Amino acid sequence: MAKQCLWLFCVVFLSFTANSKEYRVVLKNHLFYPAKITIPSNKKVKLLIENQDRTPEEFDSFDLNREKVLYPNRTSVIYIGPLVKGDYEFFGEFSPNTARGVVIVVDEVQHADN
Question: Rounded to whole angstroms, how far apart are CA atoms 26 and 53?
């Protein structure tokens, strides 16, 4: 039974990661670059967030229901979606006035900001 559960988990995880598109975000000087990320609706995506600051930050989003510590000089992965059309704000919990961004979900991405 345990082998079947592990196998099922692997299949689901691999299909999820294989079907997700990557979007790179850099955190530098307590700012997210780009601050606006445009993604397609109803698709799973992978955010690669590289923290170039010398201090940790916490990616936080009530809209996306995500929270993750971003360690200095490391790249973190956050999976989001599938999402419906709309704007989803995120911020750095340790620098909420400067580290701010938004994921913009559109029906079809033609010329994304990334």
Answer: 9
Among the listed residues 30, 34, 90, the one whose alpha carbon sits nearest the alpha carbon of residue 55 = 30
Q: Is 98 helix (H, G, I), strand (E, B) or coil?
A: coil
pTM of the model: 0.77
Which two three-digit tokens encode residue 64?
């996306």
The pLDDT, as a whole number, for residue 18 is 52
**Structural domains in the chain?**
21-106 (2.60.40.420)
Q: Count the helices and strands in the chain (H runs, E runs).
A: 1, 9
State which amino acid sits at residue 111.
H
Of 60 and 11, the structure prediction assigns the larger pLDDT to 60
